[in-house]
């Protein structure tokens, strides 16, 4: 009788741990739909992703999984866009960025921004957030 109770308690404990672990380990992804010219992702000021210089391609499909960098949800995530100098651009060297934030494939935020100018090594776009604040 005692062995059955102990096995039941162990089984319930395992179910609790598995349930807690799966909830806390949801997959966190930044899904870039457009980058013109280069995107960078930082977590707590540490560069964790830098795209190639893409330029305007009419859309990209780049998923950046940041799950292993988000352990508490209090980390600050910053997305920056660099607009590379364009020697043959007419119209003032436009830039744009479109991305969404996915939590276990569910869209929880969507950002679109564009502008003209600001070419060089300094970001023309910067957005910071804490995952748990979304």
Automatic annotation (TrEMBL):
- InterPro entries, sorted: Galactose-bd-like_sf
Q: Which domain of life is it from?
A: Bacteria
Task: Give the protein's recorded name.
Answer: Uncharacterized protein
| Naturally occurring in which organism (per UniProt) | Reichenbachiella ulvae
């Amino acid at each position: 009788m005692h062995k059955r109770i102990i096995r039941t308690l162990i089984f319930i404990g395992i179910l609790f741990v598995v349930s807690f672990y799966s909830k806390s380990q949801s997959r966190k992804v930044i899904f870039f739909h457009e980058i013109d010219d280069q995107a960078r992702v930082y977590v707590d000021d540490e560069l964790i992703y830098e795209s190639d210089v893409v330029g305007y391609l009419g859309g990209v499909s780049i998923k950046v999984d940041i799950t292993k960098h988000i352990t508490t949800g209090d980390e600050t995530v910053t997305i920056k866009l660099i607009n590379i100098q364009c020697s043959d651009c007419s119209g003032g060297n436009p830039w744009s960025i479109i991305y969404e934030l996915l939590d276990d494939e569910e869209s929880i935020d969507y950002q679109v921004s564009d502008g003209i100018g600001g070419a060089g090594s300094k970001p023309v776009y910067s957005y910071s957030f804490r995952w748990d604040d979304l």
